[in-house]
Design a protein that fits this description.
Length: 249
């Protein structure tokens, strides 16, 4: 039985090796598959084979998340290669999004700004991406300009996200009174957990402990009703909130 098990692992590795060649994957996968037949096959199955197979939308999201965990720079590498080979506006947009997701805020800013110089200068999705990248790269005033233009052209485009990002950009630009007014507007209009949490984080960061403590109890009540999946979805925001509140306790 042990010999049969070893043979089966090799057969599975051979199956994925054929897939490597036929689908044009990187040749290093062959080394991984035959050096570690069982583990290599599992990794290849999750990282490469499943994302390219026919799965329903929910399963694709799970697999994509697993693939990002196993190979977090894959999308950035592929996006850069695609742009280098065919420098179209669409490939530059993909590269900009990949750079931002990978934490290269400066690179993403440059890519998004380049996209806005061409025929897609009126694309609000690209301009929103540029605003996100500018906030991440500490170019707050430039982000304010992008967001105000978005709101002027279409007040309903990503309304809550634009409002919260604008408040953060205003705060980053040192315009704290305007930032507070925008946070108040977002909370009154949307009343979401994100709006309240971002407002509390800003209040704690600016030394307004009383306001942060005023906002926090409702956030606690909301989090107490969450299931594990909802908590996981908001894990990054919760970490930022807890860090901000721990600074004023």
């Amino acid at each position: 039985m042990a010999i049969f098990g070893i043979g089966l692992h090799v057969l599975v590795a051979l199956f994925f090796a054929v897939h490597v060649i036929r689908s044009g994957q990187q040749m290093y996968w062959l080394l991984i598959l035959f050096s570690f037949p069982m583990l290599g096959s599992i990794v290849y199955f999750i990282a490469i084979y499943l994302p390219n197979s026919r799965l329903d939308h929910g399963a694709r999201k799970v697999v994509a998340a697993a693939a990002r965990t196993l190979d977090p720079t894959r999308e950035l590498r592929e996006a850069r290669a695609a742009f280098d080979y065919t420098p179209t506006a669409q490939n530059q947009m993909r590269l900009a999004a990949a750079q931002l997701a990978a934490g290269d805020a400066d690179g993403a800013t440059a890519s998004y700004e380049a996209c806005l110089q061409g025929p897609f200068s009126g694309d609000l999705e690209i301009r929103y991406g540029a605003a996100c990248a500018n906030v991440a790269s500490k170019r707050a005033q430039a982000a304010v300009g992008h967001l105000e233009l978005i709101r002027q052209r279409d007040p309903n485009f990503r309304a809550e996200q634009v409002s919260l990002l604008l408040a953060q950009a205003l705060a980053g630009a040192g315009r704290q009174d305007e930032a507070k007014a925008e946070f108040e507007f977002a909370l009154a209009r949307f009343g979401s957990f994100a709006a309240r949490a971002e407002f509390a984080i800003w209040a704690a960061a600016t030394g307004d402990a009383a306001l942060a403590r005023q906002l926090y109890p409702e956030l606690e009540r909301t989090m107490a009703r969450w299931n594990g999946a909802t908590r996981d979805m908001n894990a990054a925001l919760i970490r930022r909130l807890n860090s901000a509140m721990s600074g004023i306790r």
